[in-house]
Amino acid sequence: MRYFALIITVMLFLQSCKNHKEPYLAIKSTANQEHPGKKLMETNCYVCHSPTASMDDRIGPPMIAIKKHYLTEGISKEQFIADIQNWIKNPNETDAKMLGAVKKFGIMPKTPYPEETIHQIADYMYDYEIEQPEWFESHYNEERGMGKGKGMGKGKGMGKGKGMGKGKGMQQKQTSAEAQELTYEEKGLKYALGTKAELGKNLMGTIQKKGTLAAVEFCHVKAYPLTDSMSVVYHANIKRVSDKPRNPGNQANTKELQHIETFKKVVAAKEEPQPILEMHEDIVNFYYPITTNSMCLQCHGTPNKELDTEAYKTIKALYPKDMAIGYGVNEVRGIWSITFNKE
User: Fold this and answer.
1) CB atoms within 10 A of CB 240
2) Strand partners, 340
3) For 147, what's the count of Cα atoms within 13 Å in the CB-facing half-sphere?
């Protein structure tokens, strides 16, 4: 009987280990979700370096390409972070590690990102797998004359074994059936982030080629038509509204003002904002915050500080009733207000 009890105990122990294996792996796999650098990278970098843009429809290399070029054999995390910091502080052709990208996209504009923000982003890039476009691996292999069977591998030479393999974060092609299975929240996010990417791509392209003053004029002329065009693409009514609008046409209504205040409290508490959905008989109203990053402050920061004098003069000339200034980093500047049909 004693031996039988011992066998039962061992079996229960082994079963316990098996049951606890998956939760442990889940914690490990979601650790990158908790790293502050992930959110900072998505917020500050993906406008230009999105993993979802096609090769022909982008204004900068994807973040995975930047990681690959900076994470050289044997480099320490400290040096990797320092190299990223140095480039952000002073982007120039002489020090560029990605000459092909510079030739194709030009030198990125100098951006006043806080050093701690870049430190967190680079720290995350060094340690974790990050999303890569579907086309990237074959493109990378072609550049180096590598055959199809000689891909990038899953972590060789990438530091701490957490290499660049495809990973769970990589977006897969979505079939029509899968698209129809999106929840209303997922559809709203798709419409908001897709429109943000389109506006951001065109805005950053203007900044790269012509500077901040031209970007102000671009927004004045093109922001509304681009947003309207995305409404047509997504078959939805897409608006950007604010409690402190630059254009009076973007003034939030009473209900939208309430949602803006809700999102402000969430962001101020350093919590992750969740979309607000209002369900009606045939339609869905979707709301999601528009938050600022350091790049935004070039047009929405404090005059004579982040917002230079000439840019501010142009803004006041184009928008005499402008209220959209004085923001800091990671503040709610407004919200996406999107309405779409349930079907």
Assistant:
1) 22
2) 236, 284
3) 2
Spatial neighbors of 269 by CB under 8 A, at least 6 apart, are none
pLDDT digits (tens, 9 = 90+) for 69-78: 999 999 999 9
- Res 60: pLDDT: 83
Residue 275, both tokens? 């979309």
Can you give the C-alpha Rg of the chain in angstroms? Answer: 23
- The predicted model gives 90-94 an average pLDDT of 85
The whole-angstrom distance between residue 157's C-alpha and the CA centroid of its chain comes to: 26
Whether pLDDT at 24 is above 60: no
CA gap 239, 195 in Å, rounded: 10
- Among 54, 290, 283, 331, which Cα is nearest to 187's? 283
What's the whole-number average pLDDT of the chain? 78
Q: Which of 216, 210, 35, 14 is nearest to 128 (CA)?
A: 35
Q: Give the CA count within 13 Å in the CB-facing half-sphere of 253.
A: 4
pLDDT of residue 145: 66
Within 10 angstroms of residue 214's Cβ, the number of other Cβ atoms is: 14
Q: What is the pLDDT of residues 261-291, one digit of tens each?
A: 999 999 999 888 899 999 999 999 999 999 9
CA-CA distance, 73 to 61, in Å (whole number)?
21
Q: H/E element holding 21?
A: helix 2-29
Q: Tell me which amino acid residue 99 is.
A: L
Q: Which two tokens stand for residue 31?
A: 């650790």
- Per DSSP, the three-state class of 283 is strand
Contact of 222 with 210, CB cutoff 8 Å? no
Paired strand residues for 236: 340
* Residue keyed to tokens 């974790």: 128
DSSP 8-state code for residue 285: E
CA distance 17 to 24: 10
Distance from C-alpha of 241 to C-alpha of 332, rounded to nearest angstrom: 11
